[in-house]
Amino acid sequence: MNPQFHRHAIGAAVLFALCSLAQAQSAADGATLNTITVTGNPLGAAEAIVPVEALSGSALLYRSQSTLGETLQGLPGVSSTYFGPNASRPTIRGQDGDRIRILSNGGAALDASALSYDHAVPTDALVTDRIEVLRGPGALLYGGSAVGGVVNVIDNRIPTEPINGFGGRADASYASGSKEGNGAVVLEGGNDRFALHVDAFRRHADDVNAPTWLECGKGGVNVLQKRICNSASESRGGALGGTLFFGGAGWIGASVSDYRSNYGTVAEDDVTIGMRQQRQALEGEWRPGGFFTAIHAKASHTDYRHTEYEGGSPGTTFKNNGNDLRIEARHRPIAGFEGLIGLQSERTRFAADGEEAFAPHSRTRSDALFLYEELPLSWGKLSVGARTERVKVSSQGYPDDPSITRFVLGERSFNPHSASFGLLYNVAPQWQITGNLAYTERAPKDYELFANGPHVATAAWEVGDVNLQKERSLGADIGAQWKAGANNARVNAYWSKFRNYIGLTATGNLRTDEGDSFARGSDEAALAAAMDEELLAEYVYRGVRARFTGIEASGNLRLLGSDGLRPLEGGKLDLEWRADAVRATNTDTGEPLPRIAPVRVGATLAWTSGPWNARLGFDHYAAQRRVPAGDRSTDGYTLWNASVGYRMKVQRASLLWYARVDNLTNQLAYSATSILTTTVFPKAPLPGRSVKVGLRVDF
To answer: Which residue ranges does the UniProt annotation give for the motif TonB box (predicted)?
Structure first.
């Protein structure tokens, strides 16, 4: 294990071991604190100023898919990068990649999913308790990689509260669209002194159903089939964790987890990926009872690697290893202000070895201090915060083969700074208005600085710019909320202006597999035939000015039942509705930015009566014609979905039987936010109709 992680872990362990020696007065002063909703409010308050969405329980169960992006797809402001059924990351308000931070229980979740669209996120909803989504800048608490938003996956692998007794849950399901079989179990037990957690899952699927006939050349045999070629997958994993509690003085816990997956990449018929992530985490809290009421710390070490296999032979291998340390100290009120100060430190080492190693071996080190404060007032509250970082990014080139000299060697240092201001105003008992203003700076990533090679996922030869400067943005968000019993409505409008927005820009040149460059006017067919090589378009990372504007709205209307327009004996009927729109522009050229979601509207009728529940809804996606030159526009489409569930009790256990139909009408559709819609059209439509049946047992 990495020695830096040992130092972080030992330091945190020593800090929290002190809580066992805390005197009785400290224990009495340190009452149990509220559970912290890290993505919504670091102080654990019920009312968040920033827009936050949360999924848990049956709501998460009915939405869950094999990837994180598809699970969250359709939430207000949230789309998916959709690199086929096996790899997708959330897109929030038109931003993806390293502008969306994915967390594991509030700590760093290290992988390579932001580097390339075909790299999956190593997490599974089968063993997830809750997912929180922060829309808008979260850079204040989590760094420049959260300028677009934050997704926090919570799995309770380190229990933060005592568990009295024994319990858990088990899941089993089958989906017809891919012959997907799933199974998972989560077990927890303990008392007021200790708690243990164990979980395990497995998921297996064949190629996914498609609404149309598609060509497939897997294994060198060309066929037509109503399936998405090379979309089969298999994943499995598990974790063991435990916590010791010291009464009111605090707690300390640790966990180990393992995730493994093998899946087809969709873009290439004979390329599969074998992925593995191993993670060790240490977390705890000490409540000293003095000026600092609680000191919360977490440290983790992650080993991640995946290998891309071409026809069964190993090709390029990607590795990302790193450590993360985060300490937050919450203080007593000062002149009415409640808040915390924090320290965050991250160390990562990245390596890519093989024919498609488009980025060099690199090392990134970042350290940050941050401050967050809230001032409760009679009419609401105010929030202010600031963050300062020091980031160093270095390139080691390609040490395994010194003859490869296309990568620049060197190191860049950056000092990003961020600040935010928020307001929550209670206009009336049923009405709230919120506002947020944030200034954010982001240091360029290693591949944005040093890349120079072929990248199959983007069908391009990517070139970094070692002279890139910090990405700067100024964003504002204003929202209104109304709630009256079961009825509610929310609307948020936002605006973000970027200076030096870093993205891939076409140069007009062509590159061969060996890196030779030719002007766009060359005879491409003759060049390819003469050299027997594939030609790739050349793209470079450049900073441009950009602007994002949009609106999101959602709500619930009780139609029948209590608080409804009419009574309904023993049941209720709700209308859930949602809509969003985003517009993103490169203001240097006036062109639209790529892969932006179209206007979307949706509604669902939700009925419950005793142990029964049923849902029927649709999401309509307008046509997306506003695309940059070279990208493919998409037609509009409507996806219908339905589900039914029945809950019953068997002794101490609660059983939920359910069935769900996705894409009820078998609609043929292509995602505007997927790069595959442009690069490999028509190989990767959205999945066709699928019926999923399952059972969840809580005990």
So the answer is: 35-41
